[in-house]
Hints:
- It is a single chain.
- The chain is of the alpha+beta class.
- It has three domains: 6-126, no CATH class; 129-197, no CATH class; 200-262, Rec A Protein, domain 2.
- 45% of the residues lie in helices and 16% in strands.
- The chain has ten helices and eleven strands.
- It has helices at 47-57, 69-72, 93-102, 128-150, 154-163, 174-187, 189-197, 201-213, 234-242, 247-261; strands at residues 6-12, 28-31, 36-37, 40-41, 78-81, 86-90, 108-109, 123-125, 216-219, 222-225, 228-231.
- The strands form four sheets. It has a four-stranded mixed β-sheet with strand order 6-1-8-7, with helices on one face. Strands 9-10-11 form a three-stranded antiparallel β-sheet. Strands 2-5 form a two-stranded antiparallel sheet.
- Helix 5 crosses helix 6 (174-187), helix 5 (154-163) packs across helix 8 (201-213) and helix 6 packs across helix 7.
- The longest helix has 23 residues, at 128-150.
Amino acid sequence: MEVKQRSVIIKPVKKIKFSGVTHHTGTGTSIEGAQLSKQGYKTGLTKKEEEQYCEELGLPKGTLSKNNGDFWGSCLNLRLTHDKPYTFIIETLMDEIKLKALLNNSRIAENELKLREMPMAEFYVEDAEARAKIEEVTINYKMEAIDALRELSSEDKKGYLRLYGKRGLDAVSDAFVNTQLFKEVDLNPQKFLGFVSNPDIKLRISIEEMIESGVLTKKGHYYNFQNEVIGNSVESVIDFFRDLKNQSIKIAAESESKKKKK
């Protein structure tokens, strides 16, 4: 097997603790060998590769077997710290074999993309291509969100801002609304796109206006209109107003809310 000489950077995952501290300086994980599972050591090698590499390296048959603890139990002997990256140098076939075992450890993600599938991972391999893909996804979401934002009227933008908990928007300028909504979109474009694609978005915005105007009141977990309970969550209020038999109540609530806005 031809080995491409290179270095692999293994970085710690930054995880914020309740105290605000990720990890204490110098703390880390010692990795003596490949990770052991019920099926044997997690080597990352196929049976064919085990035999092929043993032959190429002149090792006794079975040395690279996933059940050989004499080799896999102590083949790595490295320490990864939570505050500094670790550089793993690949110069030989044996280095390549050890890297395969390292990347099959459940504490180490193969790249940043894999972190989504490995929430318990403590480290990840820095991969410029994987990072570019993550950034591309984020950029695409932002571009799509900005396009959707441009399609909104000034009044619609105020409605969307209410979904972020903003109040008192009828008395502010369009410039203020544009700035505040853009900040929310830039911070989390996926959340905004979720609002845009919601088929009940206009009704949800209307409900926020009713709450702000005092037409809908909330006592504990319950939403009330004219002292009658109509739901115990925003979703249940939406279901109530969508029900055809409640359309007269919906129209009355919207009408009262509009009067209070004037």
